[in-house]
Specification:
alpha/beta, Rossmann fold, oxidoreductase activity, KR_dom, NAD(P)-bd_dom_sf, SDR family oxidoreductase, oxidoreductase
Length: 277
């Protein structure tokens, strides 16, 4: 079992399923997996973008690549697509849950529909897909489940209460799932990145206030992140938290939360945001 687990360090001919694989981190992970010779499967709602990514993967890997249209908030669709993948491609060796969305608004201003949508996509879908694929991996005796959390789940920032809550949930879900599947040779890797240079912020923060408070050097390249993630698959790595200085900040916040609240509000000029509201 351990020997088969270690084989995931080499993705050649391994079947990799990536949710949210049509853009952002998911796309970067798909292309990097293809460069390493994986058989890539991308799922998302945008059929045209999915097909384009799958074609890129085919060219990079020289191996089959697949795309399936999927709304991850629909459990019936999830069941149907996973069944189709099992029959058309085979067992999944590595799963990446990277589908996600955000809305950077004050908690008191969030609508129920927005709260539900974020929870459904960021947390509930991730838990359900992980649960379904984990069963198959336990039967085959190995596998890797990579779930995208966020440093927002460890360090609070103004106007991200709901988003941060979903990402904190990802961390705790993975902590328990990891214990449950470890004896079956299945790795559960939680990835908690800081700000990433993708279109995410343009969608989550339409006013651009969040990005405006962060210098360009703080943003992580999705391609570099993808490389680091795949470099840690097949090992005993539990979490990837980056950049490193943000990890240190999360430790400090846990020890001195009062000081952390003051520093975070000061950095994000939160008092000014409150006046504008």
């Amino acid at each position: 079992m351990k020997k088969r687990f270690k084989q995931l360090r080499f993705l050649k001919n391994k079947v990799v399923l990536i949710t949210g694989g049509d853009s952002g981190i998911g796309k970067a992970l798909a292309l990097e997996a293809a460069r390493r010779g994986a058989i890539v499967i991308v799922v998302a709602r945008d059929k045209k973008r999915l097909e384009k990514v799958a074609n890129q993967c085919l060219i990079l890997s020289g191996r089959p690549a697949f795309s399936y249209q999927l709304d991850v908030t629909d459990p019936d669709q999830i069941d149907a697509v996973l069944s189709q993948i099992q029959h058309e491609v085979g067992g999944i060796d590595a799963l990446v849950n990277s589908a996600g969305l955000g809305d950077f608004s004050p908690a008191t201003g969030e609508s129920f529909a927005t709260l539900k949508r974020m929870t459904d996509v960021n947390l509930l879908a991730l838990m359900y897909i992980s649960r379904c694929v984990a069963r198959q991996m336990m039967d085959q005796g190995y596998g890797a489940i990579i779930n995208l959390g966020s440093m927002a789940g460890k360090i609070p920032t103004p106007n991200s209460a709901a988003y941060s809550a979903t990402k904190a949930g990802v961390n705790q879900f993975d902590n328990v799932l990891r214990m449950e599947v470890a004896d079956y040779g299945v790795q559960v890797l939680t990835v908690n990145p800081g700000p990433i240079d993708t279109p995410f912020f343009e969608k989550a923060d339409t006013q651009g206030k969040y990005r405006a408070h962060l210098p360009k050097w703080m943003f992580i390249s999705p391609d570099k992140l993808a490389e680091q993630i795949w470099d840690n698959v097949g090992y005993k790595t539990r979490e990837i938290n980056l950049p490193g200085y943000v990890t240190c900040l999360s430790w400090v916040y846990g020890i001195i939360p009062g000081l952390g609240d003051w520093a975070i509000k000061k950095f994000f000029d939160f008092q000014q945001n409150k006046k504008e509201l």
